[in-house]
Amino acid sequence: TTLRMIAGLENATEGTIRIADRDVSDLPPKDRDIAMVFQNYALYPHMSVFENIAFSLRTRKVPADEVQRRVESAANALGLSPYLKRKPRELSGGQRQRVALGRAIVRQPAAFLMDEPLSNLDAKLRAQTRMELKRLHEEIGGTTIYVTHDQIEAMTMGT
Q1: pLDDT in tens for each of the 159 residues of the chain?
Q2: Structural domains of the chain, with CATH
Q3: Contact, 53 vs 42, CB < 8 A?
Q4: pTM score, two decimals?
Q5: Strand 22-23 to 111-115 pairing
């Protein structure tokens, strides 16, 4: 419920919700400057990795050269550069999750909301991706709200 309130999918019954020192309590989700990553990758199967990552930028009419720069930068940080022309069905689960993360990163939001983003991955890949997420958070900065029911994951991500 807290995540849904921050995202703007449910109304807070009292108090305010602030993101980057801005009261967003009464704003619709699209105006809150947040990026969400969920357990379900929600990738467009007919689009390439590049197109999936670029999608939100293109809908916001970001200039093509800026889209190219941001997608390449995110793909490089996530180890996806060799896969930019591939379709999601040609990727592993970990690669698909990184595409979903890339889609969030390129937006450069004030906050990231992550709801069980690693739960579909096997234990080895989950541990590796946890480290990648932690490194990316340190690199990018900003606020990340991370929901998990895995105690090890919570302790790793919180330190």
Answers
A1: 799 999 999 999 999 999 989 999 999 999 999 999 887 788 999 999 999 999 999 999 999 999 999 999 999 888 899 999 999 999 988 899 889 989 999 998 999 999 988 887 778 878 888 887 888 788 877 788 989 888 888 888 876
A2: 1-32 (no CATH), 33-158 (3.40.50.300)
A3: no
A4: 0.83
A5: unpaired
